[in-house]
């Protein structure tokens, strides 16, 4: 038997444990994303193909030569060699494991080497760190803008956030052997022209919203579809404080995703583009919110799905930059 004091303590501990459970179990964490761009064999490389490819010394912040622009056609460039081509006199020092790349695979080094790398960003970064090692000198461009010029004895560590944009981004380098004391523009020999680059991009935190559903009848396990029918998909979304999220709370309406798993075991296929809604004002693959029931609804017509196999439907974010749904709601239907 508990004494009165022990009973009070026991009740307090139980209450605290329950409160901690609520905080830990139901709070949706933010979803931060880190992207790393590193020099490797996917980079494009070339020698100089035109005299106007070089603007040296150049002015930081100005537009660079034509080959640095995002819309420049580099389809006739080759891929960089990675790891660094072991030309005599250019072998990395013992223990140097930086991701060096080299222009081509020829044993005779060029006077200059030009490198390009493109990548996609879905949101603007909150922080970036670019680290650059080049033998001997380099000019560094992002999206056609001149960012910096230094020599190998002065490794670059830069915040380049202001140069990046949503959509396609292009990093470009000109490297050459010159006066390492001044990072001068003059070329004095056929040299190593090797580049080691690392860019870490931190994107904004994205909240994770939780989902409850799908509701009956789609919560009973896989639904067998033998003829054309409509499948009612109904779910609720909650923020980190367990508040119900409606269409006025989200800039981007949640959408349906449908992945098909063939009956023969072949690779899965995203077949969302074939989705058709019936009975409501839904556009394309968007869910529609019902204010009375506080449910997100999508009445899926199965007419476009006839191949044998399992179809997994999910409700996902209409814009992963604004929010993500984790855990999401899923349902399955089977075509036999």
Keywords summarizing the entry:
elongated, 2 domains, seven-stranded mixed sheet, 38% strand, Jelly Rolls, 1 helix, Immunoglobulin-like, 336 residues, mainly beta, single chain
Write up what this structure looks like.
With 336 residues, the chain is mainly β. The chain folds into two domains: 34-202, Galactose-binding domain-like (Jelly Rolls), CATH 2.60.120.260; 207-335, Immunoglobulin-like, CATH 2.60.40. It contains one helix and 23 strands. It has one helix at 4-26, and strands spanning 30-31, 34-38, 44-46, 78-79, 100-101, 112-121, 127-135, 137-142, 145-151, 156-158, 167-176, 194-202, 206-213, 223-225, 230-238, 255-262, 269-270, 276-277, 288-290, 295-301, 309-316, 324-325, 330-335. The strands form four sheets. Strands 1, 13, 15, 18, 19, 20 and 22 form a seven-stranded mixed beta sheet that branches. Strands 4-3-6-11-8-9 form a six-stranded antiparallel beta sheet, with no helix packed on it. The longest helix has 23 residues, at 4-26.
Q: Termini distance?
A: 62 Å
CATH topology of the largest domain: Jelly Rolls
Order of helices and strands: HEEEEEEEEEEEEEEEEEEEEEEE
Q: Fraction of residues in helices?
A: under 10%
Number of E-type strands: 23
Average per-residue pLDDT, rounded, comes to 82
Percent of residues in beta strands: 35-45%
